Amino acid sequence: MGITGSLTPDQLEFYNSQGYLVIESFASEDEIGGLRKRMDELLTQFDCSVSSIFSTKNQKNTTDNYFFESAEKISFFFEEKAFGDNGELKQPKELSINKVGHALHELDPLYKEFTYSSKVSSLVSSLGYRRPVVMQAMYIFKQPGIGGEVVPHQDNSFVYTDPPSCTGLWMALEDSTTVNGCLWAIPGSHKNGLVRRFIRGENGVTFDRPSPSYDQKDFVSIEMKAGSLIAIHGDLIHQSFENLSAKSRHAYSLHVVESDGCKWAPDNWIQREKMPEPLYAP
């Protein structure tokens, strides 16, 4: 396949033992600036009369056809707290969006160029993928003052293959700190396996079992500088808190799965007519 892995043995050992790995300066300032500028352009073009709300607390109640159809589109999702009692936005749309997804990496040339770059492929190759596919991409805003909480979860719950194969790649486009809602994780929790799944049925989406209780003292904060990327094992328990600060926390996130010997689950929320092209193939 001609792809050489970019991670060192020490980095792989840390990833395998802890369930995550931070790679500093993964993206250049020019790349960060380009991705952010392009998102500004997409937001300017966005008609906010056609959108949805995203929530990790009330998934079932806020999921609609717009959400399902976003699997193969560039779609815009508002923060829960973006609207007043009158149903109108309380601030400009640029400060009200939770995220943009989920086919950004396929349909926008700039995001596709970055996603399919050799540096992303080399990282994924280091993790042992043979024919990796990016099933969803998200630009996440974590807006100042209203950026919503993301409850403890595992990426394999939402992006499931048999056997499980998801890895999250989460890149900070702004400094991510404990003040503006950085990621938190339970190191080593990936070794305990998948605890529940988020499934799509005739009546919409739901989790197949209640969430376990987690002790907050088991989580560690993962602060990152803009341009740093964290690889997240699909079974790692991680979360982020509300952003109550005056500074946003923009990020670009990808979820990669193996398509060689792994079957896409028919009850995943993401169902597509055509699978994305692989990052590379053997």
Automatic annotation (TrEMBL):
Top-level lineage group: Eukaryota
Transmembrane segments: none
GO MF terms held by the record: metal ion binding; phytanoyl-CoA dioxygenase activity
Keywords assigned: Dioxygenase, Iron, Metal-binding, Oxidoreductase
Organism: Raphanus sativus
Parts forming coiled coils: none
Xref: Pfam families: PhyH
Signal peptide: none
InterPro entries attached to this UniProt entry: Phytyl_CoA_dOase-like
Cofactors, names only: Fe cation
Name used for this protein in its record: Phytanoyl-CoA dioxygenase
